[in-house]
Amino acid sequence: MAASGPQSLRPRAVLTVAALVLVAGSAPAQILPWEVTVAEIEAGRLRNFAQRLSKQNVLYQLHLGQVRKADLVATSVQIDRVIESLGEGNSSYSIPAPWSPEIREQIVRVDATWAPLRRIAIASPYEYFRVPREFTPQADRGGDPLLLRYFDDLSLDLVAESEKLVSLYHEECVKTGVEVCQTAMTSGLAAMLIERATKEAVFLVAGIEPVKNRSRLERSIEAYHAQRRANNESPFFAAALDPARGPSAKAASELLVSLRADWDAMQAEFAILAAGDERNFDLRQLLAIQARLVQKVERLTGALVRYASVTYGG
Known about the structure:
Largest sheet: none
Number of domains: 2
Distance between the termini: 17 Å
CATH architecture of the largest domain: Up-down Bundle
CATH class of the largest domain: Mainly Alpha
Number of strands: 0
Helix content: 55-70%
C-alpha cells in the first residue's frame, strides 16, 4: 500500500495513464493476480480518507479535539497520492497502471469528484468560505454556516465514486481466480466502516442532525459486524491465519485478536454515546482507538496480500 507521509501540495495535474495491452478482457499477463488485489485495496483507502477528512473538518471547525488545519492538508496529500498511484501505476508499491478503459475513466471521475472537496480542504481558514462560492455560487448555506454538512456531502460523493472504482477492480480480481479477492473486499470495508462510524459519532457529539447520524451509526456498527462474520466464514482467511503456517501467520493471528479487542473497546464508547451519557463519553479515547484500529486493519490486509503473493506465485 502506498506511503502516506507528508509532502508539499501541488496543483492537480491531468492524470496520465500508461497504456497496457488488454488480454481476454482481463488484466494483462504482466500484471500478477495479487497486484490486482493491491489496486483494489488502494482504491478502497480513498473511501477511508474521504470519511476521515469529513470527521477532521468537524473536529477542526468546532475545536472538539487536537485536529489542526495541517491534518486536513495531510489527509488531502494521501488522497492525491492514491489517485496518482492508481492513475499512473506505482511499481514501488506493486500498484499497476489501469489496463481497461472502464478503470481509466472511473479514475478520472474520482479525480474530478475530489477536485472541489480538495480545494476546500486545503484552503486557508480565511478562504474556507470563499472557495465553495467559486463552484457553487447558488448553493443554499442556510442552517449550515460552517459548511459542515456541505463538506460531508462532498466527501460522500467521493466515497460513492471510489466505491465504483473498487467494484471495477474487484471484478477484475475475481477473474484472476485468486481467493484473496473477497477477503480484500471485506477487510477494506471494515476499515471504511470504522472511519465512518467514528465520523458519525463525532457528528453526534457536535449535535449535527442527531437523529440521522444516530441511525447511520447503528447501521455502520451492524455493517461492521457483518464484515467480521464474513471474514470468520472465509476459508482463505482461516488458511492465511493458520498458526501452523509459521511465525508470520501467528503474528497475523495475534494482530487480529488485538484488533478485535480494540473494536470491543470502541463499541463500548459507542454504547455510552448511544445512551446519551455524554458526561462519561470520552471523545479523545474514541479517536485514539479508531486510529489504532484502522492501522491494524491495514496491516492485517497487507499480511493477507503477502500470503496471496506467496501462494499464487510471483
